[in-house]
UniProtKB/TrEMBL annotation:
Protein's UniProt keywords contain NAD: no
GO molecular function annotations of the record: pyrimidine-specific mismatch base pair DNA N-glycosylase activity; uracil DNA N-glycosylase activity
GO BP term, example: base-excision repair, AP site formation
Keyword rRNA-binding carried by entry: no
Keywords, comma-separated and alphabetical: DNA damage, DNA repair, Hydrolase
InterPro entries to which the protein is assigned, alphabetical: MUG/TDG, Uracil-DNA_glycosylase-like, Uracil-DNA_glycosylase-like_sf
Source organism, top-level taxon: Bacteria
Any Pfam family the entry gives: UDG
Record organism: Peribacillus loiseleuriae
Signal peptide: none
Name of the featured protein: DNA glycosylase
Length: 174
């Protein structure tokens, strides 16, 4: 089963980082394509997009300044199928992508993704004080998976902090 292409360009306002593609995403070649995944609803209701996009439109979010990648490229049914070796390799590749493309903000879609990336255990939602790559704001948000036990309104509330953080980075660069 094939991974899916990253949607990256230099200087993105926001880069979403997931665990890895779902089987459905692999089959369709689009990020967050599983019908049970609430990603597209969350980012719209959090004020990141002007409307609710569909997974087949994922590449068009580059026009909004948003990109997509994963810490591991191999599709699986569940994140617990990812091996330790894949995380080690993925962590190095992800750091290189962030250094190369220089997104202003990276949003880890799930605490577990950030734990694998940063090797930290105690993580709070939102902006991280100690960054792996100091030039990039690291933001941790809940996974958008339908398996997450948080109320959707609580998840959206966390993501809704991102628009003002992005706006602040734009003001800092003026």
């Amino acid at each position: 089963m094939e991974g899916i292409l990253d949607h990256l360009k230099e200087g993105l306002d926001l880069l979403f980082i997931g665990f890895n593609p779902s089987i459905r995403s692999s089959e369709t070649s689009h990020h967050y394509a599983n019908p049970n995944n609430r990603f597209w609803r969350i980012i719209h209701e959090a004020g990141l997009t002007p409307r609710k996009y569909q997974p087949i439109e994922d590449r068009t979010l580059l026009e909004l300044g948003y990109g997509f990648t994963n810490i591991v490229s191999r599709p699986t049914k569940a994140a617990n199928e990812i091996t330790k070796e894949e995380y080690i390799q993925g962590r190095q590749e992800l750091k290189q992508k962030i250094i190369t493309f220089k997104p202003k903000v990276v949003c880890f879609v799930g605490k577990g993704v950030y734990q694998q990336y940063s090797k930290k255990r105690d993580i709070l939602w939102g902006v991280q004080d100690e960054r792996v790559i100091p030039e990039t704001i690291e933001f941790v948000a809940p996974s958008s998976s339908g398996l997450v036990r948080m109320k959707i309104d609580d998840v959206i509330s966390i993501y809704s902090k991102l628009p003002s953080i992005i706006e602040e980075t734009k003001n800092d660069h003026r």
